[in-house]
Specification:
The structure holds 2 protein chains of 2 kinds. By secondary structure, chain A is mainly alpha-helical. Chain A is built from 12 helices and 2 strands, in the order H-H-H-H-E-E-H-H-H-H-H-H-H-H. In chain A, strands 1-2 form a two-stranded antiparallel sheet. Chain A is globular, with a radius of gyration of 19 Å. Chain B is mainly α. Helices cover 74% and strands 2% of the residues of chain B. In chain B, helix 1 runs antiparallel to helix 8, helix 5 runs antiparallel to helix 8 and helix 10 crosses helix 11. The chains are: A mainly alpha, B mainly alpha. At the A-B interface, helix 4, helix 9 and helix 11 of A face helix 4, helix 9 and helix 11 of B.
């Protein structure tokens, strides 16, 4: 595989991990978040600071990164308990802007210069780069997908689904909205932290602009295009949104327009996403696989 | 002291411009419960259309009127073709559609007019004042007068006319308004037209005030005005105006006098999160 393809695939794999994590919050628990890039960024910055300033290795730092992101997710999840839907969307946008401003303006986080010189991930003295690092990302993606699959099956996941459908009804049968919303937030942000750590060690240089609000929009687009609340949707979405700009590289000047128009048409005519219930793709799949579940 | 007053006047001018943009957003939210992020796209279209008409006719009045017409048309099209069919979906669906429209319009403006900053060489026909050594520039006077006129006109329309009554009825309950013989979809479209026309005025005014028109001029207002309608109380137009004026003053004075480590654009969001924690219905909102 050429270096170009490996880099593209690695970025898509990392985006898929983060899109899956966003899907836990938005798709499973029904809590709209337009600030997920902030948690991705918190993960990346924690990993970078631990590696550059404290000299920790990736594997030693990873549990700390995940715990830290989950903890901040818990803290920032608390405002979301007081607000719903529209308010929540705006609050999460606000969180994204504030987190980016903090990274950009405090000397501790490297300020506008960002953080450079982040070492590669080492596995038993072997420095992972190129394809090896891609395999590591894919392995983590598999873990994240398995965790999401398990969430759709276990009691906590079912409780989240119930909250998403009808909060009052769920509360009346004893599902605590506070507990399960926060649970979804913590799981989602922890996974985003993992994605951030991988991103930091892959790019080896990060700055606040990498985690700005447009990234949150693309992450949400991945989830929406693929199919919100589905298991494979976010991965498909990450793949499409990662690959399409490369395929349309010849149209370089029109490519963002093309891509935003596509998103607009998608959400206008197929709001459930490509793999969502009643979507065209799913109907075709169901027809091709008689008796099988698409 | 003199400098302080001049700063304060500039802050109120900034706040007035925020108010003009936020106004349309609050109107739309009040009637449709949609976070109309693309309102900022309408505002930048307004600036470009105004500049185009100004260059063609070199009359500021025609430029403003033309830009208002174009923006009303754009606003109503967004409502008819995108928002209305999506009303039955959860609120994030129209929100994402709206963000997609904003980004598409930014790209269209960049492709059509070019990525560079265009100047808006119009002179505003307003006098310059000097009161007790404090200088009030003609642009600041213009911003005050135009904002006051727009706000006054809008207040009369919404409180004194039958159209305003129908708008308030539709914002309370569309189904009941329909049953009372109000064509509420038409009222929604009219609301979009009014809000978009006000955004056009704001776009032209900002273009002249800063002498800049550029493709991403809507990006910061898009999200800042969302924070402002939350602080004002979602759907409350007076609340949105008060919040805008306060933010304009706070931004200008804090940047001038306090050494805060964060950029001014983060301030709106901090105010917003504080407001949600303290009084989640906003300044003038009701639960």
């Amino acid at each position: 595989m050429s270096g170009y393809l490996v880099t593209l695939a690695t970025i898509i794999a990392i985006n898929a991990i983060v899109a899956c994590s966003l899907n836990v919050i938005v798709g499973f628990a029904g809590q709209i978040s337009l600030g997920h890039a902030a948690f991705f960024g918190i993960g990346a910055y924690t990993a970078a600071l631990l590696a550059v300033k404290a000299g920790w290795g990736f594997w030693a730092a990873l549990p700390c990164v995940i715990a830290m992101t989950a903890f901040i997710g818990l803290l920032l999840g608390i405002p979301s308990l007081r607000v719903r839907e529209d308010f929540l969307a705006i609050t999460t946008i606000g969180i994204n802007f504030i987190v980016e401003a903090v990274f950009n303006n405090f000397e501790f986080f490297g300020g506008a210069l960002g953080i450079g010189g982040i070492p590669r991930v080492a596995l038993f003295d072997l420095k992972l780069k190129g394809p090896e690092f891609l395999y590591l990302c894919l392995a983590f993606l598999a873990v994240v997908t398995a965790l999401c699959w398990w969430l759709t099956r276990c009691w906590a996941g079912l409780a989240c689904f119930a909250l998403r459908e009808e909060e009052t009804a769920a509360a009346s049968v004893g599902i605590s909205p506070v507990r399960f919303k926060l649970l979804a937030f913590v799981i989602g942000t922890a996974m985003a932290g993992l994605g951030g750590a991988l991103y930091a060690h892959f790019m080896r240089f990060i700055s606040a602009g990498d985690f700005a609000f447009p990234l949150s929009v693309s992450l949400l687009s991945m989830v929406v295009v693929g199919g919100i609340g589905t298991l494979w949707g976010p991965i498909l979405g990450a793949l499409l949104i990662g690959v399409l700009p490369e395929v349309f590289r010849p149209l370089i000047d029109y490519r963002i327009l093309f891509y935003t128009t596509l998103l607009l048409l998608m959400i206008r005519f197929q709001p459930g996403g490509l793999l969502g219930e009643n979507s065209a793709a799913r109907r075709v799949l169901a027809r091709m696989l008689p008796g099988g579940r698409a | 002291m003199q400098l302080f007053i001049e700063q304060l006047l500039n802050g109120i001018a900034t706040g007035s411009i925020y108010a003009l943009v936020t106004l349309g957003l609050a109107l739309v939210y009040g009637i449709m419960r949609i976070l109309h992020v693309a309102h900022a796209a309408v505002y930048s279209i307004g600036a470009y259309a105004g500049l185009l008409f100004f260059n063609l006719t070199s009359s500021l009045l025609l430029a403003v009127l033309g830009s208002m017409a174009v923006c009303s048309l754009v606003g109503v099209s967004i409502e008819r073709f995108v928002y209305f069919p999506l009303l039955k979906h959860p609120p994030f669906v129209p929100l994402i559609a709206s963000i997609a429209i904003l980004l598409s319009v930014e790209e269209l403006c960049r492709l059509i007019a070019g990525p560079q900053i265009l100047t808006f060489p119009a002179e505003l026909p307003f006098p310059e004042f000097r009161i007790a050594g404090v200088k009030v520039t003609s642009t600041v006077t213009a911003v005050y007068c135009i904002t006051a006129a727009v706000l006054g006109l809008l207040w009369i329309v919404t409180t004194k006319t039958e159209l305003g009554l129908a708008m308030r009825a539709a914002s309370q309950d569309m189904a009941v308004a329909d049953a009372m013989g109000i064509n509420s979809h038409l009222i929604v479209s009219v609301t979009f037209a009014i809000g978009s026309a006000v955004a056009a005025v704001a776009g032209v005014l900002v273009g002249i005030y800063f002498n800049q028109v550029y493709p991403t001029m809507g990006a910061v207002p898009a999200y800042k005005t969302l924070a402002l309608i939350v602080v004002g109380g979602l759907g409350s137009v007076p609340g949105a105006v008060i919040a805008s004026l306060l933010l304009g003053m706070a931004e200008t004075l804090l940047i001038g006098y306090a050494d805060i480590p964060l950029p001014r654009d983060a301030l709106a969001f901090i105010a917003m999160i504080g407001m949600l924690m303290w009084r989640s219905q906003g300044l003038l909102g009701s639960r």
